[in-house]
């Protein structure tokens, strides 16, 4: 059986016992004053009844704490209905205690009236009765003072027990909140660790991207420089070829206009002369690339 169910059953058993005892005390208060020989005084009976009511209130508080912890909804509803019934019974007991005290006072007034008539009657029986009343009154007052002191002490103890129970409940709630906070912190911690790993991966990827970009820019620059250098070399070669062609044409023209000696047209020999190359001036240039 579940521990909460066992605790609820124990509370029910204690309630039944305390309720029966309190009813007996209230019945004794209601009958007080009808008999000349009473085993307990009225204040003591009232103290016992008040203690019973305090115990019933404490049991109601315990059931109110245990009811929400029951395993099934049906048991929770049953315990709640029982708690409501207990509250009504406790209220009825308080009303019965009040009515019982009123009845006890009426009985005491009636008994006092009969006692007064007996005392005023005279004779030896009246004298013995007065002495007995004086002795009984002293013992009753002493017993009443002791009973009041014990009742106050018990009430203080009951209040301390209830305060300790409420403090324990608050501590248990705080413990539950702390456990929940700890579990949430662990979840956030794992999330932070994953986020940190992702950030590290992104940083490494960023460095790798930068390196790839730098290598790409370097290779592109090298290609551009290579193309530019090739273009410049071709242009220089073109200029040299054009200059050589122009120089050859000019030399031929000078040879054609030189005067003939002895009827023979001697061709002037130039060591640096360039052979005629049939290359048109408008020859298109092709890029080696």
UniProtKB/TrEMBL annotation:
> Which residue ranges run through the membrane?
211-229
Any GO molecular function: SNAP receptor activity
User: Which example biological process does GO assign this protein?
Assistant: retrograde vesicle-mediated transport, Golgi to endoplasmic reticulum
* Gene Ontology, cellular component aspect: endoplasmic reticulum membrane; SNARE complex
Kindly list the places in or outside the cell where this protein is found, as annotated in its UniProt entry: Endoplasmic reticulum membrane
Q: How does it sit in the membrane?
A: Single-pass type IV membrane protein
A Pfam family this protein belongs to? Sec20
Q: Matching InterPro entries, A to Z? A: Sec20, Sec20_C
Residue span, Sec20 C-terminal domain: 141-232
Recite the UniProt keywords alphabetically.
Coiled coil, Endoplasmic reticulum, ER-Golgi transport, Membrane, Transmembrane, Transmembrane helix, Transport
Q: Where is this chain primarily localised?
A: endoplasmic reticulum
Record family assignment: Belongs to the SEC20 family.
Q: What is this protein called?
A: Sec20 C-terminal domain-containing protein
Q: What lineage is this protein's organism placed in?
A: Eukaryota, Viridiplantae, Streptophyta, Embryophyta, Tracheophyta
């Amino acid at each position: 059986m579940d521990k909460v169910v066992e605790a609820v059953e124990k509370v029910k058993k204690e309630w039944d016992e305390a309720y029966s005892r309190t009813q007996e005390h209230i019945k004794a208060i209601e009958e007080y004053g009808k008999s000349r020989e009473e085993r307990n005084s009225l204040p003591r009976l009232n103290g016992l009844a008040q203690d019973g009511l305090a115990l019933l209130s404490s049991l109601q508080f315990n059931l109110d704490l245990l009811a929400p912890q029951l395993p099934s909804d049906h048991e929770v509803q049953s315990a709640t209905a029982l708690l409501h019934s207990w509250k009504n019974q406790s209220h009825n007991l308080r009303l019965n205690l009040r009515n019982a005290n009123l009845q006890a006072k009426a009985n005491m007034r009636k008994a006092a009236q009969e006692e007064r008539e007996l005392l005023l009657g005279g004779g030896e029986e009246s004298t013995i009765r007065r002495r007995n009343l004086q002795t009984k009154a002293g013992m009753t007052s002493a017993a009443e003072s002791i009973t009041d002191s014990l009742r106050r002490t018990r009430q203080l103890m009951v209040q301390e027990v209830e305060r300790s129970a409420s403090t324990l409940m608050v501590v248990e709630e705080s413990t539950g909140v702390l456990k929940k906070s700890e579990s949430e912190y662990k979840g956030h911690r794992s999330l932070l660790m994953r986020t940190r790993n992702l950030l590290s991966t992104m940083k490494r990827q960023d460095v790798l991207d930068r390196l790839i970009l730098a290598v790409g820019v370097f290779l592109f620059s090298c290609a551009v420089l290579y193309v530019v250098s090739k273009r410049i070399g071709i242009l220089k070669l073109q200029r040299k070829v054009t200059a050589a062609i122009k120089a050859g044409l000019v030399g031929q023209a000078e040879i054609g206009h030189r005067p003939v000696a002895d009827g023979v047209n001697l061709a002037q020999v130039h060591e640096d002369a360039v052979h005629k190359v049939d290359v048109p001036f408008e020859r298109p240039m092709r890029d080696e690339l």
